[in-house]
Structure formats: structure tokens, C-alpha cells
Automatic annotation (TrEMBL):
Localisation per UniProt entry: Cytoplasmic vesicle, Clathrin-coated vesicle membrane; Golgi apparatus
Protein name, entry field: Adaptor AP-1 19 kDa protein
One Pfam entry name: Clat_adaptor_s
PROSITE patterns per record: CLAT_ADAPTOR_S
Family of the protein in this entry: Belongs to the adaptor complexes small subunit family.
Region annotated Disordered, chain positions: 1-22
Native species: Psophocarpus tetragonolobus
GO MF annotation list: clathrin adaptor activity
Topology within the bilayer: Peripheral membrane protein
Its job: Subunit of clathrin-associated adaptor protein complex 1 that plays a role in protein sorting at the trans-Golgi network and early endosomes (TGN/EE). The AP complexes mediate the recruitment of clathrin to membranes and the recognition of sorting signals within the cytosolic tails of transmembrane cargo molecules.
Keywords: Cytoplasmic vesicle, Golgi apparatus, Membrane, Protein transport, Transport
Chief site of localization: membrane
Lineage: Eukaryota, Viridiplantae, Streptophyta, Embryophyta, Tracheophyta
Amino acid sequence: MSGFSAQPRAHGEERGCERERDSGREERVLKIHFVLLISRQGKVRLTKWYSPYSQKERSKVIRELSGEIISRAPKLCNFVEWRGFQVVYKRYASLYFCICNDKEDNELETLAIIHHYVETLDRYFGSVCELDLIFNFHKAYFILDEILLAGAMQETSKRTTLRLIGAQEDLVEAVKEEASSLSNIIAQATK
């Protein structure tokens, strides 16, 4: 049994695949079902789900894939067929970056997305390591959300992604300063 719940589909619609029409021709768009970052010890460092899974299914998926990927020999290819899907993974230092998509999707495109995400993290953190992702997980999610939207590649420019993350950080700082000044005003008014 697959991890996906049965969803009604319109005639001609493929599961997990969006189609775009451009001048009368159809073009397949890569659809990512989930992203996992797993340490060599099997600890999950980041998960992002773009297809519906219950919490129980998510735990089972993580357990199955982490066991299968971590135990694979380094010389084997980075593509794993799993439950009718393909999982593309790449190991960087002590982390495995894994993306699950449809079997028909381009594995090399998926590897390029993983590499793009790692390079963006590297530029943001300056030689990213596992501890950066543990203590700044929210920033790793911000970056992933700028790159991928609803399971599809959204932003391909590292520079634009980093600029948008910087703008988010500026906004958060402005809100913190405003909240601090408001709490000071309230504290003085209640004295």
C-alpha cells in the first residue's frame, strides 16, 4: 500500500504531476512529494511534505527511507525506487539530502535541485554544517521555501533567494524592535 491517500482525479490528470500548456504542447513539471535531511546516525534534521501523509505514515516513511539510504554502499547510484516512486539522494558531509518524486521525473534535475539547495545553504551560513541546521532550522526552512513552492522549483537564483531571506530577517528584526518598544510603553503606563 502506498503512503498516499486516494485522491479523485479529473480525466487525463496524472497523480503528482502538473502539466503546463505552452503553444499547444504539453510539458511535464517536476513534482516533489517530500524532502528529507537525515544525518548518518538516522536523525531527521529537516522534513518538508508536499503530498498528504498522516503523522503515522510520515514516521514510517522516514524510518524506511533512512534505513535504506544510510545502509547503501557509497559506490551505488543515488536513485532508489521506493513504493512506486523514486527517491533521489545525495550525501554532503554527514547529511543525506533526499527528495521523493514520481518515477517518470528526471533524476538529474532532482540532483540539481538538491545541489542548488546545498549551495544556497552554504552561501547563507558560510560553509554550512549539521549544527547550523540544528540551531537555525527555521532559516533552513525559509531557504527551502524560497526555492521550492508546493513541490515545484520556484526560484533558481541563489542571489535572489539570499536577498529575499535577508529581507525576511530585516522584517523579523523590525517587528521585534516594535514589539519591544510597545512593551516598554505598556510597562511605563502601568507603573
